[in-house]
């Protein structure tokens, strides 16, 4: 079972990551978000930042649908994210190894090629140990 501390540790281990000041967690590479806390919105109520749920950037709609359909206990979406390459991940439903893969993949899709080379040149910075 993973948690917000695991997200923070894994994200900050990646090259050129900046954490944005927020109520939860919010990580960027080259000014592009790749993983952040889920801002849950319920009509008529204030927004609630959920640190038990991570929003992850995914490559495209096909990948998004594959995750949603293949692992509905872990991944979900809301109408606010329709048409966007984003999924929500229930952190309690995923191990740290899998979370490391997901965070790294999200980072790779948002980082410029010149920065991806920094990750590829080094050792695995997001080892779950």
TrEMBL record:
Q: Which domain of life is it from?
A: Bacteria
What InterPro entries does this protein map onto?
YjbR/MT2646/Rv2570-like
Q: What is this protein called?
A: MmcQ/YjbR family DNA-binding protein
Annotated organism of origin = Micromonospora costi
Upper taxonomic lineage: Bacteria, Bacillati, Actinomycetota, Actinomycetes, Micromonosporales
């Amino acid at each position: 079972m993973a948690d917000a501390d695991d997200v923070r540790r894994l994200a900050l281990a990646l090259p050129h990551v900046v954490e944005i000041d927020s109520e939860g967690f919010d990580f960027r590479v080259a000014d592009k978000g790749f993983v952040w806390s889920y801002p849950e919105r319920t009509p008529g109520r204030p927004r609630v930042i959920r640190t038990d749920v991570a929003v992850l950037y995914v490559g495209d709609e096909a990948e998004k649908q594959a995750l949603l359909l293949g692992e509905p206990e872990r991944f979900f979406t809301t109408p606010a994210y329709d048409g966007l390459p984003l999924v929500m991940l229930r952190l309690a439903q995923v191990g740290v190894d899998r979370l490391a893969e997901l965070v790294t993949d999200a980072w790779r899709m948002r980082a410029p090629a010149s920065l991806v080379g920094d990750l590829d040149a080094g050792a695995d910075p997001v080892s779950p140990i």
